[in-house]
């Protein structure tokens, strides 16, 4: 099948190339000159024949000559720093062109909360990324499009699995509870932030990583992503904006004839980077080196990791139809993504349909309505790779530990399943494990509006975001596990099955009144007032059980175990359901922006939020902000030379956080088995909003006729009134009822960020653009009354150990463990301070870097994007507890590093947590490179044909020994993910940072694609 796909792609490319050799049309010469408003020539200006890729560049004196087809009617003239201009050449052989200056970086329209503003009116820190600047490649969710593109924003993939969640941090880490993720708003609709995919905790195997809540959005449909970073920009979203706001705008139809956009691609993926363990020959040498004899030398030479990996194929097809008139515009799109994972039996299939439409009514066209619908379903096959399994109970750990001298198969071809042993054959585990999920989402909104006057508009928006997830998991009993496998006490081999179902729904009612008026020649006013009501619901049900208490358990009836789960053992069956208390948010908000003489800008914002989540004494919170800007370059004393634009910004604001369980401020109870009821939380009527106060000072600039643009910002953010679930002072009963409180203490994030974009070369045939952004971060905790621990390790000798601390004068999630002092002559670890624990490093990057470049030569364009993080540490839980030296005694494999290390480590060396396994997390990754060939128009049908090749995750420069330094395995304290008995999703505990534990490896992908219009 894979060969057929590539054969078809190759044939398509050859046909398209042949078509370009069709008969040439007759041409005619057109000459002219390009000047600015002062009459000065503009050398290097680009002159292009509209509808083609043919053109030329103006010479040193601004003159040009171009050979245009006889039927050509228009030239398009462009140059950095000037507005593009179209010039008619119908019946002409000579034209004069005067370009008008245009400070595009300061006059573009930018999406902000509940509307747009001219960029020159912007006073807050906002980054806007257009579709042409997105990362290239195949992505399942839109957050991956901007990785490395925005200063102050760190985006980390939590897992290499297709569809996996990402961690997004805007201006540092301040999450004591919850996820710390920004608020996402899609076409004016704020998202819930949670995925409806049911959580899963399999006995012995652990919690499976969560999915990405943005998977329902098709990246093909996205027009722009705007990131609101400082509080003066985010305060309009009040209590949900503490961690920043990301505004996603989808593509809209434009007036004109119907246009059909088509994109298709096929790609192949392999593992990007490996953990080096011993091969069969090295393992035999290790047995001799440590005097272990030949008992565990089984005579073979196998690579168990390769046995569960594959070359994965990805197919991606998208189509969009758009058009309409000035009074009725539409865009309808559909997409299909079929992405195999590099681990066998893992894949991600996604089907999306989107509709955007806008209509205007009445003779004066003052009445209008906008419609937006996104409908999506994605299906996953999920492998048994978990966050917190024992050292040998996750598929990756099983592969890394497998004795490389022992065959995975018996002589008769059957799988080598070692009954009574803790060594699990990873191929067998892959075959007996079946985990499938399906999530269906619809996001729909209708927004009628009426322009009361030319300057005053009322708009109402109603939206609903409904998502339903179902997950069916079955593990056959023919595997050597203890709970339901053949290692259990008789009867054994029972098997285990689980069915989970979740529903999430958000309803939104928003009413806004916007006034946008040129009061006078020197004064522009933009004012907004609004009311909003949001309602959130979340409920679900789970059922799981062991097979009947008889040999073979569920048996072998040719059915998935979840299809006859009622056959399970009643004594080992769990049935549960939940319905979170409905959460409601009522808000009043307003914003006023003034622009005086295009020099002095003022913005004031206030939002009042009332939430049912909080205590009765603090139900409402007020979130104000203000900001000012001075456009220095528009002052009479400013002479525009090298510096063409200069704007100084400053602002302060307060935002909040309500990311904690609904009903947590009340006395909350839960139904249990057999008629029991248990209390989950105590009431706290004084529980109030977590507060984030931030000030920002920034400078925007443009140099050399806007060929170089950029900005520099300093920010200081303080998080206080920290929300945290406290328990009674020890000693207390196990699983004491929690009381949510606001803790004393503050988390401070401060730093500098800078970005610059430069058009280095702009010639007739060659151009080169370069962009870079850098961020310097410092994080510190102060005022805590007592330390909070998190960062839970797993594996032999350390299960349940916490290695991270949140306490005064340290960064949040600082590593807190034994200091390692090397190895003594007997191969025993030295701990200079004994078992005393101390601060051992910062898991939060102190520097972020992103680099993008585009080189174009005639019809070829090369685009490359790199990103990196520096100044942080990673705890390598995999090396500590999965591939350590003690494995040799149990006929398991070890990391090559331990085999070659001197002095030789003793097999009796204690397995424990320490700074020995804290490594530098510094890395620089070539995230994606794309080479595009623009064939242009083919005949009168195919328009703008492009063929491209993209490589993703091409290489990473790092000293980290794990699969990928871009990692954030969820090692929160408090058993996050799902309950081990019921499978129900749980809120988890305190988030961790920077711990690696046998994750799904990252993939290197090469994609061949084509896009064009009809």
Walk me through this protein's architecture.
Helix content is 6%, strand content 48%. Helix 6 packs antiparallel against helix 7. It is mostly beta strands.
Give a topology summary:
Elements: H1 2-19, E1 27-35, E2 46-49, E3 55-57, E4 63-69, E5 74-79, E6 82-88, E7 94-98, H2 104-107, E8 109-112, E9 115-118, E10 126-130, E11 153-157, E12 166-170, E13 183-186, E14 189-190, E15 201-202, E16 206-207, E17 222-228, H3 231-234, E18 245-250, E19 256-271, H4 280-289, H5 304-308, E20 312-325, E21 328-340, E22 347-361, E23 367-381, H6 395-401, H7 426-432, E24 433-451, E25 456-475, E26 496-518, E27 523-546, E28 573-579, E29 583-596, E30 600-611, E31 620-631, E32 643-657, E33 668-671, E34 677-681, E35 690-703, E36 708-720, E37 722-726, E38 739-743, E39 746-762, E40 766-782, E41 788-792, E42 802-806, E43 814-818, E44 837-841, E45 847-857, E46 860-870, E47 873-876, H8 877-881, H9 896-900, E48 918-920, E49 923-938, E50 942-958, E51 977-978, E52 985-986, E53 995-996, E54 1003-1013
The unreliable regions are: 11-25, 730-734, 975-988
Could you report the average pLDDT, rounded to the nearest whole number?
Answer: 89
Largest sheet: 22 strands, antiparallel, barrel
Query: What separation lies between the terminal Cα atoms?
Result: 29 Å
What is the helix tally?
Answer: 9
Shape: globular
CA-atom Rg in angstroms: 30 Å
């Amino acid at each position: 099948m894979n060969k057929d796909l590539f054969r078809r792609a190759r044939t398509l490319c050859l046909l398209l190339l042949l078509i370009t050799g069709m008969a040439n049309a007759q041409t005619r010469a057109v000459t002219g000159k390009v000047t600015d408003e002062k009459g000065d020539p503009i050398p290097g200006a680009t002159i292009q024949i509209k509808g083609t890729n043919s053109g030329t560049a103006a010479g040193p004196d601004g003159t040009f000559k171009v050979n245009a087809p006889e039927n050509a009617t228009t030239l398009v003239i462009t140059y950095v720093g000037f507005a593009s201009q179209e010039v008619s050449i119908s019946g002409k052989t000579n034209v004069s062109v005067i370009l008008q200056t245009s400070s595009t970086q300061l006059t573009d329209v930018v999406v902000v909360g509940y509307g747009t503003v001219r960029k020159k009116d912007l006073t807050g820190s906002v980054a806007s990324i257009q579709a042409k600047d997105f990362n290239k490649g195949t992505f399942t969710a839109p957050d991956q499009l901007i990785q490395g593109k925005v200063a102050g924003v760190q985006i980390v993939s939590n897992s290499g699995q297709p569809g996996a969640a990402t961690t997004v941090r805007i201006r540092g880490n301040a999450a004591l509870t919850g996820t710390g993720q920004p608020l996402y708003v899609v076409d004016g609709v704020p998202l819930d932030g949670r995925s409806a995919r049911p959580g899963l905790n399999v006995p012995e195997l652990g919690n499976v990583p969560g999915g990405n809540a943005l998977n329902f959005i098709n990246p093909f449909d996205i027009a722009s992503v705007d990131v609101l970073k400082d509080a003066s920009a985010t305060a309009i979203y009040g209590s949900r904006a503490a961690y920043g706001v990301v505004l996603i705008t989808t593509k809209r139809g434009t007036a004109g004839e119907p246009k059909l956009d088509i994109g298709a691609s096929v790609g192949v993926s392999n593992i990007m980077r490996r953990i080096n363990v011993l091969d069969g020959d090295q393992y035999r040498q290790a047995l001799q080196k440590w005097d272990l004899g030949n008992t565990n030398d089984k005579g073979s030479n196998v690579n168990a990791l390769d046995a569960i990996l594959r070359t994965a194929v990805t197919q991606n097809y998208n189509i969009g139809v758009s058009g309409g008139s000035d009074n009725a515009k539409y865009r309808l799109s559909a997409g299909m993504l079929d992405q195999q994972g590099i681990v066998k039996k893992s894949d991600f299939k996604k089907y999306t349909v989107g509709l955007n439409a806008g209509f205007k009514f009445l003779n004066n066209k003052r009445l209008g309505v906008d419609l937006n619908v996104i409908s999506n379903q994605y299906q996953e096959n999920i492998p048994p790779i978990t966050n917190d399994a024992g050292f040998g109970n996750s598929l990756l750990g099983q592969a890394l530990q497998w004795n490389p001298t022992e065959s995975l198969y018996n002589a008769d071809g059957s799988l080598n399943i070692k009954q009574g042993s803790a060594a699990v054959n990873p191929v067998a585990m892959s075959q007996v494990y079946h985990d499938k999920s399906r999530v269906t989402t619809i996001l729909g909104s209708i927004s009628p509006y009426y322009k009361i006057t030319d300057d005053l508009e009322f708009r109402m928006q109603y939206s609903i975001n409904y998502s339903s997830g179902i997950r069916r998991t079955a593990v056959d009993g023919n595997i050597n596990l203890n709970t339901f496998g053949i290692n259990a006490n008789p009867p054994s081999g029972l098997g285990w099955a689980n069915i989970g179902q979740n529903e999430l729904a958000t309803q939104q009612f928003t009413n806004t009144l916007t006034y946008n008026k040129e009061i006078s020649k020197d004064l522009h006013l933009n004012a907004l007032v609004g009311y909003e009501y949001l309602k959130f619901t979340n409920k679900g049900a789970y059922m799981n059980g062991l097979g009947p208490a008889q040999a073979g358990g569920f048996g072998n009836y040719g059915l998935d175990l979840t299809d006859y789960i009622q056959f399970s053992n009643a004594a080992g069956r769990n049935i549960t359901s939940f319905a979170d208390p409905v959460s409601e948010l009522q808000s009043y908000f307003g914003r006023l922006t003034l622009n005086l003489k295009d020099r002095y800008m003022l913005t004031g914002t206030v939002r009042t939020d009332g939430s049912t989540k909080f205590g009765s004494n603090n139900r409402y919170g007020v979130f104000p902000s203000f900001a000012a800007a001075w456009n220095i370059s528009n002052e009479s004393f400013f002479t525009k030379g090298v510096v063409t634009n200069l704007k100084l910004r400053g602002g302060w604001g307060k935002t909040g956080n309500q990311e904690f369980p609904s009903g947590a401020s009340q006395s909350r109870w839960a139904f249990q088995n057999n008629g029991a009821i248990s209390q989950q939380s105590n009431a706290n009527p004084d529980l109030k909003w977590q507060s984030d106060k931030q000030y920002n000072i920034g400078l925007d600039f443009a140099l050399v006729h806007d060929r170089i643009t950029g900005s520099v910002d300093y920010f200081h953010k303080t998080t206080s009134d920290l929300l945290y679930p406290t328990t009674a002072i020890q000693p207390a009963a196990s699983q004491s009822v929690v009381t949510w409180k606001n803790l004393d203490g503050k988390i401070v994030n401060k730093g500098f960020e800078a970005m610059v974009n430069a058009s280095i070369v702009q010639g007739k045939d060659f151009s080169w653009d370069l962009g870079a952004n850098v961020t310097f971060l410092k994080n510190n905790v102060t005022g805590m009354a007592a330390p909070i621990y998190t960062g839970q390790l797993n594996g032999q000798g350390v299960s349940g150990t916490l290695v991270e601390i949140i306490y005064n004068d340290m960064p949040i999630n600082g590593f807190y463990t034994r200091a390692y002092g090397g190895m003594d002559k007997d191969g025993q670890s030295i701990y200079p301070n004994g078992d005393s624990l101390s601060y051992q490093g910062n898991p939060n990057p102190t520097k972020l870097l992103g680099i993008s470049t585009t080189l174009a030569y005639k019809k070829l364009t090369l685009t490359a994007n790199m990103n990196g993080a520096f100044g942080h540490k990673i705890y390598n839980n995999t090396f500590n507890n999965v591939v350590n030296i003690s494995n040799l005694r149990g006929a398991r494999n070890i990391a090559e590093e331990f085999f070659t290390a001197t002095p030789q480590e003793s097999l009796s060396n204690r397995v424990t947590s320490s700074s020995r396994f804290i490594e530098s997390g510094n890395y620089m990754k070539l995230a994606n490179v794309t080479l595009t060939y623009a064939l242009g128009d083919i005949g009168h049908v195919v328009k703008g044909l492009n063929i491209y090749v993209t490589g993703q995750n091409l290489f990473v420069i790092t000293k980290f020994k794990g699969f990928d330094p871009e990692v954030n395995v969820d090692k929160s304290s408090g058993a996050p993910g799902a309950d081990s008995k019921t499978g129900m999703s749980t809120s988890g505990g305190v988030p961790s940072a920077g711990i690696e534990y046998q994750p799904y490896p990252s993939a290197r992908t090469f994609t061949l694609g084509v896009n064009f219009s009809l």
